[in-house]
Amino acid sequence: MSSSKYKDLKVWVKSIELVAEVYDLVKLLPGEERYGLSDQMRRAAVSIPSNIAEGHGRHTDKEFIKFLSISRGSLFELETQLEICRRLNYMDASTLSGVGEKITEISKMLNSLIRYRIKNELNT
């Protein structure tokens, strides 16, 4: 597995797009959340493509699967933080609908990639 090819993974590309969206969304948060919720949201978002890239660079399916799972965990963390924003009335459902759709899409892509890599690992 070539470490430079992670940029060709559609899930990595979509995750990078999600990071940009999250950085735009946190600008809508009140000032008192600048170093709280917004920081956590940015970190969770950045963690998603970062762990895809790191896992891809580890050169084994087992390690790649581990990092894909970490990436999925960060995605769910971000989804939870966005729900907190909605419940605290920092953002409304219509503002969050696009990012929610992207999270669902990335989640499905990660699940598929994990299943594929598990099957690949079992066959080697």
Structural description of this entry:
Helix content is 75%, strand content 0%. With 124 residues, it is mainly α. The chain has a single domain (3-122), classed as Up-down Bundle (de novo design (two linked rop proteins)), CATH 1.20.1440.60. Helix 2 runs antiparallel to helix 3 (61-87) and helix 3 packs antiparallel against helix 4. The longest helix is centred in the last third of the chain and has 30 residues, at 93-122. The two termini are 14 Å apart. The relative contact order is 0.17. The mean pLDDT is 94.
Summarize the structure.
With 124 residues, this protein is mainly α. It contains 4 helices and no strands. The chain has one domain: 23S rRNA-intervening sequence (de novo design (two linked rop proteins), Up-down Bundle).
**CATH domain fold name:** de novo design (two linked rop proteins)
Characterize the biggest β-sheet: none
Helix content: over 70%
Structural class: mainly alpha
Helix-strand pattern, N to C? HHHH
What's the architecture, going by CATH?
Up-down Bundle
Task: Work out the radius of gyration.
Answer: 15 Å
The total number of structural domains is 1
**Multimerization state:** single chain
CATH hierarchy, class = Mainly Alpha
Which stretches of 5+ consecutive residues score pLDDT under 50?
Answer: none
Shape assignment: elongated
Would you count the extended β strands for me? 0
Q: What is the overall number of helices?
A: 4
Query: Could you tell me the strand content as a percent range?
Result: under 5%
Q: Kindly report how far apart the N and C termini lie.
A: 14 Å
CATH homologous superfamily - what is it? Answer: 23S rRNA-intervening sequence
